[in-house]
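WARN no homologs supplied; continuing
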Amino acid sequence: MSTAETGRVTMDIDGHICTITVDNTAKKNAYTPAMLDQVAEFMTTYDETDDLWVCIFCSAGEHTTAGLDMPRFFGPTAEPNRRRPGLIDPFGLERRCTKPVIAVVQGITYTVGIEMALAQDIVIAADTARFQQLEARRGIAPLGGAHFRYLSRTGWGNAMHLLFTCEEFSAERALQLGFVQEVHPFGRHMERARELAATICECAPIGLRATKKAAMAYIEGGEQAAVACIPAIKAQVFATEDFKEGIQSFVERRKARFSGR
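OK structure emitted
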């Protein structure tokens, strides 16, 4: 299968800074299983390379991602999981990166795009960014950490409002909610991420890593309990008629008609 059909992920190194770039612009950077595996491989390389101190995680083109390429993950055309065990999990549900990671978002930033951004440390957004956690409109539920990272970022009421309505929200709203830390004009947002990475590189890398590990230890208990719920959530929603309808409506590009069964 060609790169044009599957997308690709690259890693570039400039001094102590590495940039991991997702590139599937023909499909608004929709993720395939292979692309997620590549992100995990590169994040692991970053985490295990002593001379790399800061990572920028970004996407090519005008959009962060439209989400998963659904038929490649669910249903009869789902592709097998080929990821090597023990790699960094881009969603931070299993092994987490222990060094600073700056996520950069722009344009369409849906579902897994939000979850992977929130799994990193700092999020820089373009003013074009628009966000939507729309799994429930596809007959499933968020499985990449939204169910607890929304809570830690913005509190119960705001989190439930967004997760229950599946409505889209802007970069400015994301800044108000604490989902992103800075918003800049498109193009300038990537420059700002590089500036921020350079500033972080002025600090002692071992001290930064120790700081992140200590912060992770503080939140670990609650996150582990939330992560432990994911298999039960998956089993519950995947066994429903609404799940089948959600996938079929995605394939047919129409609004889903759910029955509550």
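The mean pLDDT is 90.
OK
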